[in-house]
Write a structure and sequence with these properties.
Length: about 375
């Protein structure tokens, strides 16, 4: 990929290294980081290095009457944002919409006035949600202007936000379709809740887990989001109990189970730490589950102490991590009495130093 903002934009910082070399470099970095663990060969899973992001956020830059999209500067360039001409990491639906949307907004004072940020979310079917974020008082009177935008961009649903307030003009979700091992799964994704940014890598992560986790019985899942992994994984297990802190994500996950006709999943909105206490408390919520297999996909902070102790009580663990530092810390506990059966690096974030990993740990008993 080439980009006129390489060297200035804080998003893609590995611009001096060809894409395939980036993968080798990241693999070597992981090998070095995890050298004290008995890990198998790291599988490197990658996809397109252009037009791969299904969601993105851009600040707005003004020069006279003109608006530009902007990104935060590279650390070396100091604080603040820089205007960008285009962004090639967003998927084609977002990429094609960006310039046309901005030139329409430019023509309308009410839409333009103190517009601070635009967020995009797209689906594989070309549906989009655009969120306009303002640094001023906005009221329902903006509806007329949004209606005009909507006439022009028929596949887009618009949301307007200003501090603490949100106006939804159509709907605040879209339906994503993923083909996993030849079967289509449908997912409702609600705006401003977590969704995997890289659609193709997401599909490959789910397929990797299904292929490598050769487990039977029931499954407990922490940090389940909208049921992204839960729904296809539920076909391998007898019963699944999946939890997540965000009630909106749980609402989407419950909807998604029905949409995909999965009847063996129970979703609960609670924090991982809260859920972890249920076992000690002999909670009826866990009655009837064999607590042998656990799947976790935590945020960058990894597991808190309580949740780590809980996860460590399972025989088999599937761990998806977006932060190798906290993964390493957690494996110091979790890999003590288990074998690391599979280790993958998924390149969710080409041109950045971020690394997503998948680890399957099985009991040595
Ligand atoms: C990396 S995302 C993974 C979501 C899901 N597995 C997926 O593939 O879309 C992490 C999820 O953990 C949730 N989360 C964050 N902190 C949490 C906590 N303390 N307890 C439970 N869930 C939490 C977030 O809302 C988010 O949905």
């Amino acid at each position: 990929m080439t980009c006129s903002s390489f060297g200035k934009c804080g998003s893609c910082v590995l611009y001096e290294i060809p894409y395939i070399k980036q993968l080798e470099m990241k693999k070597e970095k992981l090998k070095e980081m995890f050298k004290d663990f008995n890990i198998p060969e790291i599988e490197v899973i990658y996809d397109k290095d252009e037009h791969f992001r299904a969601r993105a956020e851009f600040r707005i830059w003004r020069e006279g009457d003109k608006l530009f999209y902007a990104m935060r500067k590279r650390k070396e360039e100091g604080r603040g944002v820089i205007p960008i001409q285009e962004c090639k990491i967003v998927d084609k639906a977002i990429y094609n919409l960006m310039p046309d949307l901005l030139s329409e907004i430019e023509k309308n004072e009410n839409l333009k006035n103190r517009l601070y940020e635009i967020d995009f979310l797209s689906s594989s079917l070309g549906e989009l949600i655009v969120t306009l974020i303002y640094h001023r008082k906005v009221d329902e009177s903006i509806a007329e202007d949004i209606k005009k935008l909507k006439e022009k961009f028929t596949k887009v649903d618009f949301i307007v936000r200003k501090k603490g307030r949100k106006y939804i003009f159509d709907k605040n979700y879209l339906i994503e379709e993923l083909e996993i091992n030849g079967k289509i799964y449908k997912y409702k994704i609600i705006e401003n809740t977590f969704s995997q940014p890289n659609r193709n890598i997401n599909k490959k992560m789910i397929e990797w887990v299904l292929k490598n986790a050769d487990l039977k019985g029931d499954l407990v899942e922490l940090y389940c989001g909208n049921g992204n992994f839960t729904i296809p994984m539920s076909e391998k297990f007898n019963k699944v109990i999946a939890t997540e802190i965000n009630p909106e994500s749980i609402q989407a996950a419950t909807f998604n189970a029905e949409l995909n006709n999965r009847k063996n999943i129970t979703f609960l909105a609670m924090s991982a730490a809260e859920f972890s206490s249920l076992k000690k408390e002999n909670s009826p919520l866990l009655a009837g589950y064999d607590l042998k297999n656990v799947f976790i996909d935590p945020p960058r902070a990894g597991l808190d102490d309580k949740s780590r102790r809980f996860v460590n009580s399972f025989e088999n663990i599937i761990y998806i991590s977006c932060n190798p530092e906290t993964l390493k810390r957690d494996l110091e506990t979790l890999a003590k009495k288990r074998k690391i059966k599979a280790f993958a690096f998924f390149d969710q974030f080409p041109y950045t130093n971020h690394m997503e990993c998948g680890v399957i740990l099985e009991s040595e008993k």
